[in-house]
Predict the structure.
Amino acid sequence: MCIPEILFFKLHIFCEFSSIMKNLINFLIQYSVVFLFLLLEIISFTLIVKNQEYQKSVFLSSSNSMVSGMYEWSNSVVEFFKLRAANDNLSEENTSLKNQIINLQNKLSTLKPEASDSVHFRISPEMEYQFISAKVINCSTNKLQNYITLNKGAIDGIKMDMGVISDEGVVGIVKTVSERFSVVIPVLNPKIEISCKFKRSNYTGGLLWSGEDYRYANLTDIARHVELALGDTIITSSFTNSFPEGIPVGTIEDFKIKESDAYYKIKIKLAVNFRTLSHVKVINYLNFQEQKVLEKKSEE
Amino acid sequence: MPTVLQNIFRFLLLVLFQVLVLNNIQFLGYINPYVYILFILSLPVQLPRWFLLILAFTLGITIDIFSNTPGTHAFATVLVAFFREGIIKLFTNIEEGNNPTPSFYTFGVSGYIKYVVVMVLIHHATLFTLEAFSFVHFWIMVTKIILSSLVTLLLILGIQSIKTK
């Protein structure tokens, strides 16, 4: 007897439910554009906020192979006009390297006679570096956060956190690596701070970009008792594992200090001209892993 | 059909122009025009809004991928696409049933200029604010917005006045 009643009750609920659904669907259709708008904006915003993580995922950055391919193509056209300057740089570097070889050979020959069995020669471990040469295929200088794309990637031995230099000086640090391309965060990006020091006095400070001009950056943390002069050379300190000591960073263009300040405001003219950057070297520090593991162990 | 082809062509041309030419421009350190927005400006007036939004998102994300700024251009472009209909209604009176492509001829000179000015300002303001997201330099940002908008405007109006039809 009560079975039909239950059925009826179920039907009633179903009708109620379906009318609610209908209203809901109507509502959704009416405001579908607004919902779509909100959805797309939320997607975009999540992408912006998760920028850091997405930098690592290769798909949405310019180390994506299709995008890099196109940049490489466009670069092959533009590069033609930079050949002359690049050649000049290369020949200059060649000569300086040859000079170094001669110097080293001379030193070696003076050492040889005394190198009997008792003396043990060893290269100091922090000096074991190798260079991987690479070409810049995309480089921005006009954003608040700039990036550089290189045409070498994981198969050429490039890894995250390797330092990048050009013949003139420090360029930046490798951030993302895909199989054949990599993206570098240059000095012209407030996301990195490179530890540098004065060539003549060894005081260290951090190099930070001000976001305005691609030719200049600021040097922080230099206390007021340090003696400075315009034109002083700034080089990398040995405190960042990405760079060996002594790579040129820039020269002092201007410095200010107020009576009340404890630290100088120093403007550095960067050694590298990022607008004409075309060939760079990626530094492979062979003992990077060992040093990092050791340092981590002692922190624990 | 020709309008569809024309728009696809315009999309590709503007993206290439933006990525290969304009993204490399740095004048006085502040000026960084974004002319690709002309694609959204020139779509037919009666295009369904949902489709307009999706096109805007595609355009934005394409520019983003090329300039390593995930989300920023997409956000600004979708926003400006969302407000487009309202802005067109504000400055022009298009009759029902008509589906013109925005230009000097269809909107009238002053109507079209007002439309472009407002759209470009919304887009650039959003874009540079988002770009400065993690890096606060208020006055640099404002200068960038004003100067870049100005150059974008001149470029867009220049391109539009060269077109014969």
